[in-house]
């Protein structure tokens, strides 16, 4: 019989959050694959677990390293996979291993536990039913503008991860599009300096402070149609003129305007081109 692949959630901060089942699996599996072996070894040592085999498997691991683990599973060995913290595969590596294991007919077993996404939602007061998790936003370029537009076009609650040094910029960009949307910044969840900061995106973006530690941003549900109805053509044209004066590209302006106004990107692009031609004539 082949072995089983266990996907094991570990604490995101407070070590007391580890489950009894996770400890049992980690202690019993002959192989543990970890995103960061040093961090995982420290966790295992804290709980008195001496792994028989602890090996690295991270986002940049090659096919040969994944195949080695699948071979071990096929030969009958159980394997536990953990990431740095929290639930694997949620903006963390592990997907390639799971896909390879399922393709080989290996049983994959989730061992649920701590999750920064769910912890932030629990305390935000902004769940409102369905929610959408988008992970980390792209850092720049059209990919970032499109991702921001997707956030603004989502009426359900949205959960984002963000690096502390980019949190202020992201808040300003989101506030530019949907200033009155309710939001919560969940920082350093389950850790000593855990903090929940709530307000509208406009209020959060105006805070003059440094964001430190692990950051999860929860945006409350909002009415996309109501936002589109509240913005008239004059306000759109004013923004277009300012952006053109600053030398921005037409497509970039249109993407940002679509996110802000709730109107179709094609309509905004046509309006930008028309304004550009009028200003140049």
UniProtKB/TrEMBL annotation:
Transferase keyword on record: yes
Any one GO biological process: methylation
EC category name: transferase
Coiled coil location: none
Xref: InterPro entries: 4pyrrol_Mease, 4pyrrol_Methylase_sf, 4pyrrole_Mease_sub1, 4pyrrole_Mease_sub2, rRNA_ssu_MeTfrase_I
Reactions that this protein is recorded to catalyse: cytidine(1402) in 16S rRNA + S-adenosyl-L-methionine = 2'-O-methylcytidine(1402) in 16S rRNA + S-adenosyl-L-homocysteine + H(+)
Subcellular location field: Cytoplasm
Alphabetized Pfam families for the sequence: TP_methylase
One annotated GO molecular function: methyltransferase activity
Keyword flag Transferase: yes
Record's keyword terms, sorted: Cytoplasm, Methyltransferase, rRNA processing, S-adenosyl-L-methionine, Transferase
SUPFAM superfamilies: Tetrapyrrole methylase
EC id: 2.1.1.198
Domain of life: Bacteria
Tetrapyrrole methylase domain boundaries: 4-205
Family recorded in the similarity comment: Belongs to the methyltransferase superfamily. RsmI family.
The protein's role, per its UniProt record: Catalyzes the 2'-O-methylation of the ribose of cytidine 1402 (C1402) in 16S rRNA.
Protein name (record): Ribosomal RNA small subunit methyltransferase I
Lineage, opening ranks: Bacteria, Pseudomonadati, Myxococcota, Myxococcia, Myxococcales
Gene: rsmI
């Amino acid at each position: 019989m082949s072995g089983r692949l266990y996907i094991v959630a570990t604490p995101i901060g407070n070590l007391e959050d580890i489950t009894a089942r996770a400890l049992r699996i980690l202690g019993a599996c002959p192989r543990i694959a970890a995103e960061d072996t040093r961090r995982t070894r420290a966790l295992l040592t804290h709980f008195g677990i001496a792994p028989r085999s602890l090996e690295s498997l991270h986002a940049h691991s090659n096919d040969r390293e994944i195949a080695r683990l699948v071979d071990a599973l096929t030969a009958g060995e159980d394997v536990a996979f953990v990431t740095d913290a929290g639930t694997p595969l949620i903006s963390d590596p592990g997907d390639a291993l799971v896909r390879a294991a399922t393709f080989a007919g290996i049983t994959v077993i989730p061992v649920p536990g701590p999750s920064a996404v769910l912890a932030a939602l629990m305390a935000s007061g902004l769940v409102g039913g369905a929610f959408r998790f988008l992970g980390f936003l792209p850092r720049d370029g059209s990919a970032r503008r499109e991702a921001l537009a997707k956030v603004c076009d989502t009426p359900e609650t949205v959960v984002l991860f963000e690096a502390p040094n980019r949190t202020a910029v992201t808040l300003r960009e989101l506030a530019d599009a949907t200033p009155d949307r309710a939001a919560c910044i969940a920082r350093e969840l389950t850790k000593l300096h855990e903090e929940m900061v709530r307000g509208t995106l406009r209020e959060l973006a105006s805070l003059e402070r440094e964001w430190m530690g692990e950051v999860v941003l929860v945006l409350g549900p909002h009415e996309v149609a109501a936002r589109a109805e509240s913005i008239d053509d004059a306000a759109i044209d004013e923004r277009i003129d300012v952006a053109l004066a600053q030398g921005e590209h037409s497509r970039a302006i249109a993407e940002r305007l679509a996110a802000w106004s709730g109107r179709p990107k094609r309509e905004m692009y046509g309006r930008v081109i028309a304004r550009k031609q009028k200003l140049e004539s």
